Amino acid sequence: xxxxxxxxxxxxxxxxxxxxxxxxxxxxxxxxxxxxxxxxxxxxxxxxxxxxxxxxxxxxxxxxxxxxxxxxxxxxxxxxxxxxxxxxxxxxxxxxxxxxxxxxxxxxxxxxxxxxxxxxxxxxxxxxxxxxxxxxxxxxxxxxxxxxxxxxxxxxxxxxxxxxxxxxxxxxxxxxxxxxxxxxxxxxxxxxxxxxxxxxxxxxxxxxxxxxxxxxxxxxxxxxxxxxxxxxxxxxxxxxxxxxxxxxxxxxxx
Length: 254
Hints:
There is one protein chain. With about 250 residues, the protein is an alpha/beta fold. It folds into two domains: about 5-145 and about 215-250, Vaccinia Virus protein VP39 (Rossmann fold, 3-Layer(aba) Sandwich); about 155-210. It is about 30% helix and about 30% strand. It has six helices and eleven strands. The protein has helices at about 5-35, 45-55, 65-80, 80-85, 120-135, 215-225; strands at about 40, 60-65, 90, 105-110, 135-145, 155-165, 165-180, 185-200, 200-210, 230, 245-250. Strand 7 and strand 8 form a beta hairpin. Helix 1 runs parallel beside helix 2. The longest helix has 27 residues, at about 5-35. The N and C termini lie far apart (about 40 Å). The model has no long low-confidence stretch (mean pLDDT about 90). One of its GO terms (molecular function) is methyltransferase activity. InterPro entries: Methyltransf_12, SAM-dependent_MTases_sf. It holds the Pfam family Methyltransf_12. This is Class I SAM-dependent methyltransferase. It comes from Streptacidiphilus cavernicola.
């Protein structure tokens, strides 16, 4: 089964409100300052994409390889205004596959929201290099840093409850640390459990599992630097350090 096949049904109903508020706070202002184009890596259901399209006056390239999440993204864009929808191009490829095939014009802003932790070390390095090719000189990259280390023990995060008609949707996320003694590279195993109740009775319970890859701040900075990025201090997007910001410091064609 493809990833997000289960979660796509529950993602927006349980998380959209909080994620939209977060996207407005973090990405609307940088999008308004973009002058040539915006690259969004891992657009998901389109919550951040919607904020970018509303705030920006430049083309937005929303990259989402997963079919289930891309369906949600396109459904959300179908209800946007003609003006906003005309600015957004949805790419089903990975960011590494966009160039040079599509010959996309350079962007001056790239956004990775809740993406980096889902990439292993090789995928991260490929992503930084691809974005350095797509973002013009002095272009800005905004990412939310992944966990810096594997947690000491398991923990659980409870998602909000949402009433839809007679039903109440809820869920929780179980995190389990996994340490690899051979490689020394650990990961966090997530199990999402979704529940639907009516009159207090459990009607359905669905589960889906994912892995996250922690990376320390020094390692992340080293990876970015190797691809031609320099981390900014503090983030131009917000000074509360919710985002890590970097700028292209060399011409990737040079």
